[in-house]
Design a protein that fits this description.
The chain has 247 residues and is of the alpha/beta class. The chain is built from ten helices and nine strands. Strands 3-5-6-7-8-9 form a six-stranded parallel sheet. The protein has a three-stranded parallel sheet with strand order 1-2-4. The two termini are 30 Å apart.
Length: 247
């Protein structure tokens, strides 16, 4: 059975608006396992107006959940991470251990306000790049002032950032607009990661297989493997993802 790697989800219990209990987290992980997901980076929200856990506490909680999975005989491998809400000084917070990268790599999953000005987003990307990090823009399809012009997406990619979109958006779970936008991004080769952004067991589930099958049918096996396995594996191994034009 082929497997997938999820780099964005809210399965760690009792931290944010995702899983509210260990029982829910375990059910979500069993669902992910049945769907073919073999490795997951857990990315609870990290926001300036919230009480956030630091890297040390994050590792403790992930290790505890991993131990429980092993006891239950579930083979999914878990990694630490965060979905970082951008604010001034974020790179310094990461350096100080107040905010975490993905799987202790140089990659950071960063989100912005959906209505943030494009210049603010571009400057935020530049600040993270200047700090030595590789920004992955979480659910890129949500940012109105980025996606209104394809050239803006291209500019952010050319700067050195990467685009993550949600599988549910591609499959039309969040409306026709999101579906059309994400499929346009796929067609123009402006997507680097497809993730679940899973929060629960019903509306925002930890599933990738349906979307992976669609992408394989539409764009081929290589595209599917790149988006659901090869690029996420680069994150886990802390290897820089080269644009195909650079090869």
């Amino acid at each position: 059975m082929e497997t997938y790697i999820d780099i964005h989800c809210h399965i760690l219990p009792g931290i944010d608006d995702g899983s509210d209990s260990l029982e829910t987290s375990l059910e979500m992980l069993y669902m992910a396992d049945r769907d073919g997901i073999s490795q997951i980076i857990l990315t609870p929200h990290n926001k300036p107006w919230h009480t956030n856990i630091d890297r040390t506490e994050m590792k403790v909680r992930v290790d505890q959940l991993q131990e429980r999975l092993c006891e239950d005989g579930l083979a999914i491998r878990l990694y630490t991470g965060s979905e970082l809400y951008y604010r001034d000084g974020l790179a310094e917070e990461i350096e100080q251990g107040k905010a975490g990268t993905l799987a202790d790599s140089q990659y950071v999953l960063v989100e912005f306000d959906p209505l943030a000005d494009y210049d603010y987003i571009r400057n935020g990307v530049y600040a993270l790049l200047s700090g030595g990090y590789y920004p992955i823009i979480a659910h890129a399809e949500r940012y109105k002032n980025v996606c209104c012009k394809t050239g803006r997406i291209v500019e952010l990619v050319d700067m050195g950032s990467f685009m993550q979109v949600n599988a549910g958006s591609i499959m039309g779970r969040y409306g026709i607009g999101m579906k059309q936008l994400t499929r346009k991004m796929l067609k123009q080769d402006l997507v680097h990661f497809v993730a679940t952004d899973a929060h629960d067991l019903s509306e925002r589930t930890p599933c990738l297989s349906q979307c992976a099958k669609y992408i394989e049918k539409k764009y081929g096996e290589d595209s599917k493997r790149r988006l659901f396995y090869d690029h996420p594996m680069c994150v886990l191994h802390d290897e820089y993802i080269r644009n195909r034009e650079e090869d």
